[in-house]
Amino acid sequence: MLKAALRRGVSKPSCLSSIRFSSSVAAQYFPNEPIKPQFVSETIPGPKSQALNNELGEVFDNRATYFVADYVNSLGNYISDVDGNKLLDVYCQIASIPLGYNNPALIEAAKSDDMLYAIIDRPALACFPSSNYKQILQEGILAAAPPGMTKVWTALSGSDANETAYKAAFMYQHAHKRGSLDFTHEELTSVMNNKAPGASDMVILSFDKGFHGRLFGSLSTTRSKAIHKLDIPAFPWPKAPFPALKYPLEEFKQENHAEEVKCLEEFERIIVEDYKPHSIAAIIVEPVQSEGGDNHATSFFFQGLRDITLKHEILMIVDEVQTGVGASGKFWAHEHWNLTTPPDMVSFSKKFQAAGFYFSNPELQPNQPYRQFNTWCGDPSKAIIARAIYQEVSKHGLVEKTAQVGDYLYDGLKQLVNKYSSKVSNLRGENYGTFIAWDCYDADVRNKVLLESRKRGVNIGGCGDVSIRLRPTLTFERKHAEILLQVLEDVFRVV
Ligand SMILES: Cc1ncc(COP(=O)(O)O)c(C=O)c1O
């Protein structure tokens, strides 16, 4: 199969128009980027990959390994493996490579003096911040802040970003309840036994099929797969239904609207009937439920959530860990909603490399230091990289370019999904940049599509039970899309 693909090369699908490479940002960044996937070994993973992975397995759980990568020789949109195969990567380290492998601008940032000291003298940021931390934040993470957000709390991962947001929500709600009073003796003693009233009995509400991380608090709000949660103690927190939209959207407008109304009604019923007033501290919701299967909802649904949270004085956390930083065709996916008031907190990680949550209400900062705290409280080396990412994205208009290439890719996929409708369906992500997904007939077909794509030199990821999601870089262009479409056409034909 690989040899056949190699002999055949990857040609341009005849249905698609030719493109001009001169304006390509990818070509500026990566003049030596491969022009198509390259194969060296008969299989992927190849022999070197398998041998190295076996060795790694002696000390590290490597059972999820696709192949062992060669990051020195990966470039732009192509990931190299240790056997020398070069794959067009539309999975990108689980949606977290913003500007392509070995991007020269990020290499320059990595070689700066700011970076050197950030790495070797890593500060405990809340106690001994560096003289330039404010500047690094202002020129990067804060310059990219969603509309209405002026402050940030930096964290270590997507899960940590969400958990610190939950803590901010609990402390905010209890501060409101307590008013000007100090902590009581009972609170101070009961909390040391993990009991109310000192330990909060408030809850965070999340949505069916949502994914918010795998640490203890975030895992309690994760509802995508049982296997992620089994055997781990969980908070008894509520979940509300997330709309299950039918596709194509234009054919099911009424049904989908009715579904969203039903979900909003159930959401408000849970708040009003199942919980006492002010006992739900916050809700958390993804703009697209990514790990859970790339489930979308319309602006109407999200505006409805916002209205209901405001009505019941519940905080709204938007989890942009996977959707943030340009892939949706807006820098932040929730900008698609045009909310009448911004959410209370927006968490980020992945493509920004740095993690944390944005907010604007100063009361989301607890009333005393050390309550929202850990040793590092973020990582300035990652904030420096985030700054370089933001500056490159702005300089090259990469969000707008991603919106354009996404439209092109979506149109090509629409043709393929129509042609192979017995195997693939429910294409989603129209007008949503490259944040595109579709369903396969069943899990078996889905897994075959992933494997057959890799055999043809495209590294691609699944999500949910039967879905495939595209998560390329922001330097993914029409020339890459053409290769992807050609490979997918070949794959859909054979699975
Ligand atoms: C929406 C969302 N939230 C949170 C997380 C957790 O992030 P991390 O794996 O960095 O803890 C993920 C990871 O996939 C995610 O997709």
What percent of residues adopt helix (DSSP H or I)? 25-40%
Provide a count of the helices: 17
What is the CATH topology assignment of the largest domain? Aspartate Aminotransferase, domain 2
Task: Describe the sheet with the most strands.
Answer: 7 strands, mixed
pLDDT averaged residue by residue: 95
Give the low-pLDDT segments: 1-22
Bound molecules: pyridoxal-5'-phosphate
Q: What is the domain total for the residues? A: 2
Supply the CATH architecture of the largest domain: 3-Layer(aba) Sandwich
Per the principal axes of the C-alpha atoms, what is the gross shape? Answer: globular
State the CATH superfamily name of the largest domain. Type I PLP-dependent aspartate aminotransferase-like (Major domain)
Span between N and C termini? 13 Å
Q: At the first level of CATH, what is the class of the largest domain?
A: Alpha Beta
Q: Tell me the strand percentage band.
A: 5-15%
Short description:
This protein has 495 residues and is an alpha/beta fold. 38% of the residues lie in helices and 14% in strands.
Describe this structure in words.
The structure is a single chain. The protein contains 17 helices and 17 strands. It is an alpha/beta fold and 495 residues long. The protein has two domains: 2-103 and 397-494, Aspartate Aminotransferase, domain 1 (Alpha-Beta Complex); 113-395, Type I PLP-dependent aspartate aminotransferase-like (Major domain) (Aspartate Aminotransferase, domain 2, 3-Layer(aba) Sandwich). A seven-stranded mixed β-sheet has the order 4-12-11-10-7-5-6, sandwiched between helices. α7 runs parallel beside α14 (380-395) and α12 runs parallel beside α13 (299-311). The radius of gyration is 23 Å and the shape is globular. The protein binds pyridoxal-5'-phosphate (PLP). Pyridoxal-5'-phosphate is lined by residues 157-159, 162, 211-213, 286, 290-291, 319, 321-322, 349.
